[in-house]
Amino acid sequence: MSDRHSCVLILGIGETASAIARELFLADHIVALHQAAPPPDLRRKMTFSDAWFDGSSVLEGVEARRADLVAEFMLGLRSRMFVPVLTHPLQQILERWPWEVVVDAEMAPRREPFGVRNLAGLTIGVSPGSVAGESCDLVVDAHGKDPGAIRRPGEGPGPAAEPEPGESEPARAPVSGIFSMIKDIGNVVEAGEAFGMIDGTPALAPYAGRIRGIIKHGRAVAAGTPLADIAASTAAQVAGMTPRNRLIARGVAFAIEMQAEGWTPFSWDALNEGGSGFTS
């Protein structure tokens, strides 16, 4: 294990980004999350996204705090007591601190092509469509049979996302207005039961199950906005990190560690061609 700790900026605050931030924070890296717009995440107990709204959030024993002021930002980075959540424009954040690693872990589809390559000495893509050598230096697979696998330039994009077993379409807003919660994350609902209200109009569960995620109370929503993620199984995980996101986070941590040690990431292609897959 290297004693060299990197300054890492993670783009996004969803499940994958939060898992990566937690993993790197516990490995004593200097870590911050960047989320400029209100996060749309429903599975809020599996992320740090509530810090964006409430100022603070805890994921499996690690705290994240919204840091709008320079003093809060610097306190988080220097003390390593919490993970700062930064909301200013990305360019300002890049200029404010000498980031050594930038990780693109924004899993929601973007309207325009986006890349992080050249934003730091090492850039890692986890987001959909990331291609090593084009949009970033290295890719860590987020999907497929081997989440957390590292891809080098020339190895192409990683596997596309596939629906999770038992995953259904989210319950959506029937009208526009201000959403009020009746049920919370972890509660069980019956088909047709109201889990919230939008200005007096009930938001009904389309099927029975356990609420795995729900939009923040008091948020303005447009008709059709996803409101709740309801899992068919009442034993579904509703808090903490999923096994897949743990593997992704470890893959990112391993890629940073190898960079610090001067190793080239492992490649099955290199191994099949007769090499070890590692060079120094």
Commentary on this structure:
- A hairpin with a 2-residue loop joins strand 13 (about 195-200) and strand 14.
- The protein contains 6 helices and 17 strands.
- It has about 280 residues and is of the alpha/beta class.
- Helix 1 packs across helix 5.
- It has 2 domains: about 5-160 and about 240-270, Rossmann fold; about 170-230, OB fold (Dihydrolipoamide Acetyltransferase, E2P).
Features:
17 strands; globular; 2 domains; OB fold (Dihydrolipoamide Acetyltransferase, E2P); alpha/beta; disordered C terminus; 6 helices; Rossmann fold; 280 residues; nine-stranded mixed β-sheet; four-stranded antiparallel β-sheet
**Percentage of residues in DSSP E strands:** 15-25%
Distance between the termini: 16 Å
Level of helix content?
10-25%
Overall pLDDT metric: 89
What structural class is derived from the secondary structure elements?
A: alpha/beta
Number of helices, counting only DSSP H or I runs of 4 residues or more: 6
CATH architecture annotation name of the largest domain: 3-Layer(aba) Sandwich
Q: What's the SSE pattern?
A: EHEHEEHEHEEEEEEEEEEEEHH
Q: How would a crystallographer describe the biggest sheet?
A: 9 strands, mixed
- Strand numbers in spatial order across the main sheet: 3-4-5-2-1-6-7-8-9
**Morphology:** globular
User: Poorly predicted ranges (pLDDT <50, ≥5 residues)?
Assistant: 267-280
CATH topology of the largest domain: the name is: Rossmann fold
CATH class categorisation of the largest domain? Alpha Beta
User: What's the total count of β strands?
Assistant: 17
**Domains counted in the coordinates: how many?**
2
Radius of gyration: 20 Å
